[in-house]
Structures are given as structure tokens and as C-alpha cells.
Amino acid sequence: MSGDAEACSPDPYTPANGSTSYRVGHYDLTLDYRLASNRLSGRAVLTMTAQHEFRELELDLSGLRTTKVTSDTVRVRSFKDRAGKLVIGFRDPVPDDAEFRLDIRYEGNPEPISGTWGEVGWEELTDGVLVAGQPTGAPSWFPCNDHPSRKARYRFTVTTDAGYRAVCNGVLVSRIAKSSRTTWVYEQAEPMATYLATVQIGRYELVALNDPARPAVGLPAHAVPRDPAQPVPQYAAVPPSLVPAARASLARHHEMMTAFERHFGPYPFPQYLVVVADDELEIPLEAQTLSIIGRNHLDQDWEAQRLIAHELAHQWFGNAVTAARWQDIWLHEGFACYAEWLWSEAGGSTTADARALSTHQRLTREPQDLTIGDPGASDMFDDRVYKRGALALHALRRAAGDDAFFGLLRAWSEEYRFGSVTTPDFLAFATRTLQGIDVGALLAPWLFAEDLPAL
């Protein structure tokens, strides 16, 4: 197979994004960003493998101008920016299974991408930057194969104004300050979907969450790789004026981590970071190894605490174990919503059973016109996908009992760690794991019927 490679988007929910023609194994992103002018100069070195022979490929890149494309492994014939794509042509066919590299220079004023789910991607804050990538925001700041099944490893090198902290996925490996500019380098060693890649820039102070009594000053400039025998290193990046509120709101975060490790298995990454933006945000945001909340989420009430728990749970379900297609997003959101109820239970508040009953009663009063196993692109972030997905898991817990149910969650998290999954994968795995339970018959009404089942 050769010729024009781009008739094959991986996903009908996001048909304009992603490609099955190649895989990216590693992104090496070097960014120079100037806050006052919102000016980004980028270099992306992509290590890639062809999935079939082609003479042309497309990368997702929106709103930025490509200035140069070179390669030390293939001969580049041409490149052009076209309708949210970077189209690259080659002088010779790139053969099936060939490994090659592309070195791409680009620049511009990044901005969010507007679409079905509102504005996603690179966003300017009052004093800094936020990236909200889900589901199609990654092309707003780097050229990529933008689909959750196309996981890769990353290196981020971000240079920005002095006095600001740049936060990216993974572990901070170096920080170099030179006059008015500072360069931050992060390594994300575990495979990651493009929508989870992020850059956060702000006047942030690093605060330890494992020991709430530890002072904010005197912490290391970077977090060291994790010792598996020790608790997960947990930090918050917080504007100095919000440190007291963040300490109070996140005071039990280490307890959340302990509870989730007990239920879901070991935390999948070397560390975890909560970024507190100095702006109000509509909802918290997930990214691999970190989450982003707004100053309006700094509270100790249930609404704020459930959102903090929800984003932490995504590290297991959504980040480490990722849906291979967007129609199966309940595998992210249903699990993370159920984690809220588990934290309510573990934290000494309302039981998961009580949360489930209350949610079920509310859902009976809402329209019964959605199947959460395939909700459709426009409804994949509908709150019913979250809540009904959580109810499906609670129904499974009731049928299996706690020991078997939590054994299933731990085994699922371990078996598919850093991989991509579908709903049929989960149903088959649960059937093998939970002996004596007809998992398919139990979950089918929850996942594939519009009418809400009885609980």
C-alpha cells in the first residue's frame, strides 16, 4: 500500500485527527515561549515507525506556522500547513515498518482550538499559560499524531521568562537560569497519549503534600525518581498567595493516594503534582503525572474534594490505562467518578452505596437517551457517562463482593498498565477474573441500553 496515507483516521469521534499510517515512539519538544507577546518558537524531533508504505504523511498542527522540516533518515520533498495539518512529502516511498526521524521547526501565537467540545489546547491565563488537551487540543502547541491510542514517550525543554515555573509531564531533570530566561527540562518515560501532554507556566511555588507541615521554602528544584519502597512523592505548584489555601484544601491528598493504591494497585508514575492556577477554572483538568485545578477549587467541601480525587484517579484510569478509542471514555470517567465515591467512603464521609443510590435516583429524572458504551462524539463528556459508568462499577461490586471487585481493579490496572484498551477488553478481562458472574449480562444494560437499569 502506498500513496496518500491519510484516508485512515483512527477514530470516528475525532475524524480530523490522528493517523494509522505511522506511530510516533518519542517526541523531543524544545519550546521557547515569551509570555508578554504569547510567542512560541518550537522544535519537535519525532522518532517514528511507518505502519505501511507511503510517500506523504500528515501530522496534526493547528494555528502555528511550520518553517522547516528536515530528516537524517528519509529525504523530505516538501511540507505545507493545511487546515490543521502539517503535510510532509518524501522523495522516495517510506517503506512499511521503516524507522525514521523528522525534525520540525515551527512558530506562532498559540491559541485554543474551537470545536465540538468548546475551546481546547493552549490557553493564556491572567499571568501564565495553561494547556487543556482533551480531546483534541495537543495540535495547538506541537505537531503530533493526535489520538489516545498513539502513545509515546516525551522530553520537554521549555524556556520562558525568569520568575515563572514551567511544569510539564514526568520528572524535572534540570533547570538552568540565565539572566531573564529559565530553561526547564522534563522527561516523561512512561508512554503517554498526546491529549495528556501539557505545559503549565505560572509564578508557582513548590509545596510538598506528603508532609503538610513541611515549609514551602527549601524544597528541591526538582523531584527525584521514586523509590518504590517509599510513599509516592506528591507536590503542589501554587501561586505564593494561595499556599495557605492550597495546604488546607490538599491536606488529605496523601490519604487519597494511600486509599487509591489500596484499591487500584501501585501508583503508576514516579511522582504526582497538583498545579493550582491563579485563575478560576470551569473544571479541573487531567494530565499524565499531574492535574490542574483553579483557585476556585481550593476548598474542603465535598464538591472540591471529589474533583481532586477524580483527577488523581485518572492517573490509573485514563493515563496509565487509556481507552484505545473515544467511544470507550466511560473507562476513564466512570472509573474516576467511582473513585470519588470510594474516597467518600475511605475518608469517613458518605458510603459509596449511599452515593450510588442518590445518583441513581437523580438519573431516573434525566432523559434516557444515551448509551454510555458508545455515547457519540457530542455527548462523550455528558455527565451521565460519568455517573452511569460509576453505577455500572457499583453494580459489579455488589455482585462480586469487595475482595473480588477490588482484586479485579488491581489486576486490570496491572495487566494493561501503559497500554490501550476497549470496552470489550474490560468485559473479557472481568469475565475471566470474576468466576461465576456473567459480567456481560450484568453490564450490558448499563453500557449498551438507553433505559437506566434498576440498582
From TrEMBL:
GO CC annotations, alphabetized: cytoplasm
Entry's localization field: Cytoplasm
Example of a GO MF term: zinc ion binding
Needed cofactors: Zn(2+)
Enzyme class: hydrolase
Active site: 311 (proton acceptor), 386 (proton donor)
Cofactor remark: Binds 1 zinc ion per subunit.
Protein EC: 3.4.11.2
Top-rank lineage group of the source organism: Bacteria
Residue ranges constituting the Aminopeptidase N-like N-terminal domain according to the UniProt record: 26-196
Keywords from the UniProt entry: Cytoplasm, Hydrolase, Metal-binding, Metalloprotease, Protease, Zinc
Binding locations of Zn(2+): 310, 314, 333
Stated name of the protein: Aminopeptidase N
